[in-house]
Amino acid sequence: MSLGGKAIRSGCLPLPLALVAATVSLALVGAAVATADLSVTAIDCQGHPRKIAIVNGGDSAQDLTGWKLESDQPDEVFDLAQIGALGPGATVYVFNGHGAPEAPELVGGSWIYPWNPGSFDFALWEDGQDFIQIVDAGGNVVSTKPCPVPPATPTPEPQPQPTLVPSDTNPDNGSNQPDSNQADNTQTGGGSQTSTGSGNAALSSAQSRSAAGEVFGPPAPGAAAPLPAGGGPPLAAHSIPLSLMGILAGTALILGGVSLIRLALRRPAQDA
Amino acid sequence: MKRIAILAAVIGAPLLLFAAFGSTPFEAPDTAEATEVEFLYGPIVVQAGQANESVPAISISPWCTNCYITKIVPDMVYSTVFPFDTVGIAGQPANYNTSTQHGVWLHHDVVLDQCLRNIIAAGNERSTYQAQVGYGRYVAPKEVDSCNTGWYLNWHVHNSGNVQHSVQLKFTVTYQTTPLTNTAGIWLDVSTASDAEYTIPAGYSDTHTGDPGMRPDYTVTAAQQGQILGMGGHVHDYGISVSAYNMTRGEWICTSIAGYGSDSRYGPTSGPPAPDTGHPAAANAQTLDHDYHEPSSPDNAYHIQSMSLCSGLSARSSVVCTGDVLRLHTQYNNATSFPITDAMGIMGAYTTAPNADGDGVWDGCDTGDSDGDRYSDRVEFMVGTQPNDACADNSSDNAWPADITNDGVSDISDIDQLSANFGLGVPPAPARHDIAPDPPGAIVPLDAVVDISDLDSLAGLFGMSCIP
To answer: Which of these, A227, A232, A262, B438, has the minimum number of CB atoms within 10 Å of its CB?
Structure first.
């Protein structure tokens, strides 16, 4: 104790002044550490929507002007400035793509901000490489979180190939089922009735079919053919057999029709 | 005899030559027999990792007209028409099915009539609508009810797998034209959104109709008042239950509890201790149905696979009268780190409304006394006696509330019966012993207790007999 007292005195400052100086110094140090501390605390790279949780773990609010969220592609950027400022201890969520709200939504005291709501062009994927990072106004990366590594994909199962059967030659039977299904498909109410709301083209997410087979909504690419929902694998593999079958069926019809006409023309002569 | 007819909804591409035959509107066969028909809609193609939503809904024809629908089994199957699914077997149920190559699941589908009255709605649990024996939902011809000029179908199908899928929505419908007792529907929804979705926070939540931002509490209309015969609900993953409470009568009507496979990661951990029957503390643990195993095998991603249904409700809890206010309570315990934006809390009920005196007021809500036995029709409904029969024909013919023994006389034997349960609530005491009070102007008769009011009622009729 005495040594300490001497040391203080030897510093040429009376004790009260030294205490004041120390207090001021501590206050200054305290002010220096009272900073915001933003980080990505949770990430969902698989769900609809993709989800990002950002927490300000610091003890002061952070103005987010000029701040961004960035993913692995140059165009995958979310402007955090729209959030304004994030208070100390506060959480904000950014939901990306299909399933995200259309407008900011307050839930349980925290805001959810949408990032490209409705789009299936998600910013995050469980591909072992994707990530999200917070970049401040100075371009510094302040927090990064990688997407989880996807679970190992099992060996693909052998895929049964669908069998297309030739056209049903009975025009009253308005269906074209594989043989395995035809055994179960008993028509009722007579002939060609089918349940409505159906058609001969696939119903894509942007296109629906009315009871009368009328297509409404935005036209899908390649409208007459069965369409996948979102530009998926092309149906080229089916187009050749389909074309061939169409040609064969058409030829058969034409030949059959010609034969019937000829037969009809001959009969009166034979009868005569 | 039941006839089974399967109506294929779609003509495959090779039959484009005959496409005109596919647009013939379906008309129900004019049969009095129970008929079962399968309706298939699609194909619906869903890319890997994407979803397919019908916006707007498509138009369909009513499944039958001038008929009574008694059963609807909703399902989603791999497409039976082109384009076929490359993984699933045509016509078989499409679901998560454990494999990464499956993973297509039914977020929901809904069938509505033209007036937007619900015919059926289903989530991935695919609950069956089954009317009780003798009842059915009448579908009037469009000339009588313009709401049946056309129906709507909308859907939301997800594909969590890694390959494209092609599916059809399937409804197996049983109906008949032989007259049945008609039922009406009540549709309750927490959310105000057209897709019935709302957002829940992380952790436990109990969301109600009437909460800020949610749909107002539901007021029963004159067309809906009656006895609730059956009711069921719908929630999503992490959901515990959805329940309906009659605020006017102070009665829980039905609590529909979610079911999950064992060790499901989506099964909610227990909520707070259950304060009442409308807030069960936990979901139902069930044997895992592998159809509900998400394609991230072998982890424990077992999605919600069932919702419990309510039927055989007590008379007291089944009554809904015009103006009654109903509230939904929807419990979730969201174990993720994020809010969930597509939570749902929905219940559907169907009611029937017999009317003994033909005055247009259902007996359970009728303060009049159709048979003149000094007990109102609404009391007789809750007691379990017949509103249009004042006198027992035999010992099992519950006709007159004051004649508990059904011997045609209100006497000491009836007082003895009632006294045995004096002071007890109903239940455990039988509803037959709670016959009073029924003050004029009261919204709800009876007090669910066997007490002095019931003894007074018997005493007032002591020694009187009825004539069959």
So the answer is: A262
Domain that holds residue B456: 363-468
Q: How many CB atoms lie within 10 A of CB A164?
A: 17
Residue from B2, B17, B24 to probe the interface with A (highest A Cβ count within 10 Å) = B24
Report if pTM > 0.90: no
Q: Does ipTM top 0.90?
A: no
Single out the residue of A148, A141, A173 nearest to residue A43, CA to CA.
Answer: A148
Q: Choose the mutation target among B3, B7, B191 for the interface with A, i.e. most A CBs under 10 Å.
A: B7
Q: Smallest Cβ distance to B58: which of A171, A181, A197?
A: A197
* Token couple for B315: 């008379």
Count other C-beta atoms under 10 Å from residue B16's C-beta: 18
Residue B465 per-residue DSSP state: B
Residue ranges of domains in chain A: 2-28, 38-146
Of all residues in chain A, the one with the smallest CA distance to B159 is A48
**Pairing, β B35-46 against β B3-7:** parallel
All residues of chain A having their beta carbon less than 8 Å from the beta carbon of residue B342 are 48, 99
Which residues of chain A are within 8 Å of residue B85 when distances are taken between CB atoms? 162
What CATH number is given for A38-146 in this structure? Answer: 2.60.40.1260
User: Smallest Cα–Cα separation from B243: which of B316, B161, B180, B317?
Assistant: B317
Chain A partners of B334 at a C-beta cutoff of 8 Å? none
Claim to verify: residue B334 and residue B388 sit in the same structural domain: no
Residues of A in contact with B16 (CB under 8 A): 200, 246
- pLDDT tens, N- to C-terminus, chain B (468 residues): 233 333 333 222 222 222 222 223 334 444 557 899 999 999 999 999 899 998 778 999 999 999 999 999 999 999 999 999 999 999 999 998 877 788 899 999 999 999 999 999 999 999 999 999 999 999 999 999 999 999 999 999 999 888 999 999 999 999 999 999 999 889 999 999 888 899 999 999 999 999 999 999 999 999 899 999 999 999 999 999 999 999 999 999 999 999 998 878 787 777 777 789 999 999 999 888 888 887 655 567 788 999 999 999 999 999 999 999 999 999 999 999 999 999 999 999 999 988 878 888 899 999 999 999 999 999 999 999 999 999 999 999 999 999 999 999 999 999 999 999 999 999 999 999 999 999 988 889 999 999 999 999 999 999 999 877
